[in-house]
Amino acid sequence: MAALEELCLSYIHENIDSVLKVPIDMSCLSEGLVNKLTKIFTVDKMQAVHDPQDKIISQLYFGKLTDLLSGNAPDTAIASCCLCGSLYARSQEARLICESAPMRIGRNGSVTRPHERWAASTESSLGRMSTRLLKAILEILDLT
User: Fold this and answer.
1) Of all helices (H) and strands (E), which one includes residue 80?
2) What is the pLDDT of residues 92-126, one digit of tens each?
3) Which residue in 117, 127, 132, 140 sits closest to 31, CA to CA?
4) How far is it, in rounded angstroms, from Cα 69 to Cα 50?
5) Could you please report the per-residue DSSP string of 101-143?
6) Staple 131 to which of 8, 58, 85, 125, CB 3.0 to 4.6 Å?
7) What gap in Å lies between CA 7 and CA 3, rounded to an integer?
8) Per-residue pLDDT tens over the stretch 76-100
9) 76 near 90, Cβ under 8 Å?
10) Are 57 and 138 within 8 A, CB to CB?
11) Residue 143 CA: distances (Å) to CA of 15, 47, 105
């Protein structure tokens, strides 16, 4: 059964524009299948998809961004601060200052104001973001 599932997902990936022309409701796909599709699609491929009725593209962007923010994606490079809402590179986390964070005194006596990572399990706040915003975030970060 897994082989058939992989074959179907591969077909959808390769022929997404043709699949979207068929008058079907893509919201019937389970969350697990959408997650697997998200892993197959690159950001560039998602941007090339013409989905005016939003049958599946917002689900793909939501899944891609959730993977990137939760650390499940390979080479995850971004995090979000739960205090100020800014996105930042995880590799730069220790050097950045969060204006909304309370001051802390470090081990060497220096005053710091570090970002606090947002927990990706809070899907409601992420779900409120529009597809256009998700595209813009992924474009700015140049993630493929």
Assistant:
1) strand 78-80
2) 788 888 998 898 888 888 888 888 876 554 444 44
3) 127
4) 25
5) SPPEE-TTS-EE----BPPTT-HHHHHTS-HHHHHHHHHHHT-
6) 58
7) 6
8) 567 778 888 787 777 778 888 899 8
9) yes
10) no
11) 23, 12, 35
Quick one: which of 12, 127, 13 has its CA closest to 66? 127
Name the residue type at position 47: Q
Are the C-beta atoms of residues 34 and 66 closer than 8 Å to each other? no
Within a 13 Å sphere around the CA of 102, how many CA atoms are in the beta-carbon half? Answer: 2
| Alpha-helical runs (H) found in the chain | 2-14, 16-21, 31-40, 43-48, 57-70, 123-127, 131-141
Give the length of the chain: 144
Distances (CA, A) of 102 to 99, 113, 121: 8, 6, 24
CA 19 – CA 79 distance, rounded (Å): 33
